[in-house]
Amino acid sequence: MSIDLSNPGRRELIRKAGAVAIGGVAASASTGFAPAVAKAATGEVKQGALGARLQGVQHFGLTVQNMDRAFTFYTEVLGGTEIMRDGDFQGDGIHNTLLLTEDLESKRRHVNPRTRGVPDLRSGAQRLDVRFVQFDNVVIELLQYRDSNQPQGSGDSFAQPNDNTSPAYPRSMHICFYIRDDVDFNQFIHDLEAESAKRGMSNVKANRIVASGSEQERLQAPLDTMTNRITSGKSDGWTLIYAKGPEGEQLEFVQVRGHAKRVFGDAYETRRQALAK
Q: Where in this chain does the record put each Glyoxalase/fosfomycin resistance/dioxygenase domain (predicted)?
């Protein structure tokens, strides 16, 4: 697992965040919303705006086709730290918790839920496995639904993957990672593709800021075309690129400097002060 822990501050962040992630306060512990956490812990936050009752984002969930492959990408390639894994979830309680809305919609349509890719956790015909991976300020949960006779980890998933992962589709979501300010962003994207390819994940692909007529042209594009740096307007200082992960999931990588960094910093401080009141 390639994780750079040479930076003491980063090491301490990971230690603290990992210790509280499953308790649901990873985001608050690493972003400094201590006043809101304290109020919630003492039972003071009971009424009022919903936002005042939150502690931040705890995790992003990603349903995968191949658990081992996805786990390798998020730990070995991107350097996340495994918090825990659990699995073989089945039964009425977990089925209703996760899939009641899908069951009701299937009933409304008068179709078998299985034809719509809804697993049967109720009877145990299908099972759910999960793994949690910690990054500095958020957790990613990997989920795999499989048939009961399918081994955990690798192998086949219950439902076919959704091929429509373009960010233009309504309901589509993406996971965004911060790139450190002192990192060469273009080189990072080059290395991301190279490290993924070494592990057989040639489907991990990042966009370029220039058009390509073929996959070969995309690969041969100059290094400085791998990121889009915005240098004017309200987003001045924001650098980004979109990429596909090993499961076809939509990823984004960003650096936030200059004006954009000040805007987000000021907004964070305003919210922190509001929650502290």
A: 57-107
> Considering the entire predicted model, what is its pTM?
0.80
Distance CA 8, CA 37 (A): 25
User: What's the mean pLDDT in 174-201?
Assistant: 96
> How far is CA 101 from each of CA 107, 113, 131, 179, 182, rounded to the nearest angstrom?
10, 11, 24, 37, 46
Amino acid (one-letter) located at 147 = D
Element (H, E) at 45: none
Which of 137, 161, 185 is the endpoint of a domain?
Answer: 161
Q: pLDDT tens, 259-276?
A: 999 999 999 899 888 877
- Residue 9 forms part of a structural domain: no
| Alpha helices in the chain, H assignment, sequence order | 8-20, 26-31, 34-41, 67-72, 92-109, 185-198, 215-220, 258-276
What's the CA gap between 217 and 205, in Å, rounded?
Answer: 13
Asked if the structure places residue 13 within a domain, the reply is no
Sequence length of the chain is: 277
pLDDT digits (tens, 9 = 90+) for 211-228: 999 999 999 999 999 999
For residue 214, the enclosing domain spans 167-276
Q: What span, in angstroms and rounded, lies between the C-alpha atoms of 247 and 203? A: 8
Q: Is 79 left (phi over 0), alpha (psi -120 to 50) or beta?
A: left
